[in-house]
Amino acid sequence: MIVPRHDILASCRSIGRLKPNVNESSKKPWKQPLLSALFVVLGSIAIFFPAWLPDNPTLPTEDGIVEGLQLVLLLATSAFWFGAAKHAGKIGPFYQIMGAISLASALGEGDSLIERTTHFPVEYFFIPLGIFALIKFMKNRRHFGEFFGEFSSHPAAGFFASAFMLIFVLARFLGTSLLWKASLGENYHPDVPNTVEAYLELLACYLLLVGTIGLCIAHRPHDPTAID
Questions:
Q1: At what angle are helices 65-84 and 92-109 packed, to 10 degrees?
Q2: Which residue has the higher pLDDT, 213 or 46?
Q3: How far apart are the C-alpha atoms of 14 and 54, rounded to whole Å?
Q4: Which of 40, 43, 81, 131 has a C-alpha 20 to 30 A away from that of 156?
Q5: In what helix (H) or strand (E) does residue 163 lie, and over which residues does it extend?
């Protein structure tokens, strides 16, 4: 039986289309691991930076460098949320809500620094941020389930859970003066609880930033800005 030439050519074309692209499959996404490693290193430097400062009894820990680092980390977290909103598609407004919450948290952590600089109460900034978040939620509440499903199924949710545990459990427990008075006795100093609490909050801010970066740079098949 002689097979017609055009059938052979058609079969060859179909096989060529089904053949995987070796070059594309062999490419490794090196940028994302490199970016993650870079942020881990920078975060480690940020966490231990106050410990490298020279002894200065006139520099309050909570109101000084630690509070400033908390402010920087939370501002960076807010920037990532707002920056990734466009790429998130339908759930992008919830990224903007998370950005507004992160910005409000940054203002709350840096209230003393901001008020000393601007002489303006930080609480007034919470009003427009709250209104913005409420409007975004009411307009896009039908997509909240999709956002929550993506958020809760991503490994970044573990970073957020750890950060909240540090802030609302460990920092409150280890930041009590009664614990350190009972532990240190006559060596107790009033700055010890505040310093421990400040460092735990700083670590929580770093975990929030890492979790936010992991979620924001994750690949999304529904990315409206992706180039085919």
A1: 170
A2: 213
A3: 70
A4: 131
A5: helix 156-165
